[in-house]
Amino acid sequence: MPDWFRQWPPIERKADQLITWAPLIVPGLVQTEEYARAIFEGEPHKSPQQVEELVNARIERQAIFDRPTPPQFLAVMDEGILYRPVGDDSVTRHQLEHLINLAENKWFTVQLLPYAARCTAVLVGSALLAQENGVPIAAYVESAVHGRVVDSPGDIKRLVDRLELIRSAALPAYLSVQRIKERVAAWS
Questions:
Q1: Whose CA is closest to 19, among 148, 147, 166?
Q2: What is the pTM of this model?
Q3: How does pLDDT run across 100-147, given as a tens digit for each residue?
Q4: What is the largest distance, in Å, between two alpha-carbon atoms of the chain?
Q5: Residue 186 CB burial class (10 angstroms; 0-12, 13-18, ≥19)
Q6: Cα 130 versus chain centre, distance
Q7: Burial class (CB in 10 A: 0-12, 13-18, 19+), 31
Q8: 179/160 Cα distance (integer angstroms)
Q9: How far apart are CA 151 and CA 153, in angstroms?
Q10: Which one, of 48, 39, 50, 53, lies nearest residue 86 by Cα?
């Protein structure tokens, strides 16, 4: 786990709600092992051993959903995720099937931001917001170089405002799941 990421997992583990938006790939906390591997294999200068360590660390983080009371997880993803192949077609199809299965849990919600929404707020990159008792406590924001934890009230407010704008343009959960199912059917 990179040094700049180490402070995030304890925040993630104590949160009772996690909200993320993702413009390019499925968020890490709900990635399948194969999808995560394909993502990390695309990183320049990663050895096979480093890729496996990163995949294992990502999958271990998902243990928060195995708790008796898992955190509520809302993933708002750009519609392009349905069409962007990661790995081969079977990797992407399996990932989408995984999202459909997750949507059967009361703690998981997925919303797609359709192209037609023309919402540019999502284009700045992905972020993961952690909340406790309905109050945002921190966020993890990614860039092409590295991520960082944001916890200043002003920055959190700007992220929450951006998230609300994105969510208001996104499809409701039931329509989002329907679109994912339609894409899986097209691949089958």
A1: 166
A2: 0.92
A3: 999 999 999 999 999 999 877 767 788 899 999 989 999 988 877 678
A4: 46
A5: exposed
A6: 12
A7: buried
A8: 26
A9: 6
A10: 39
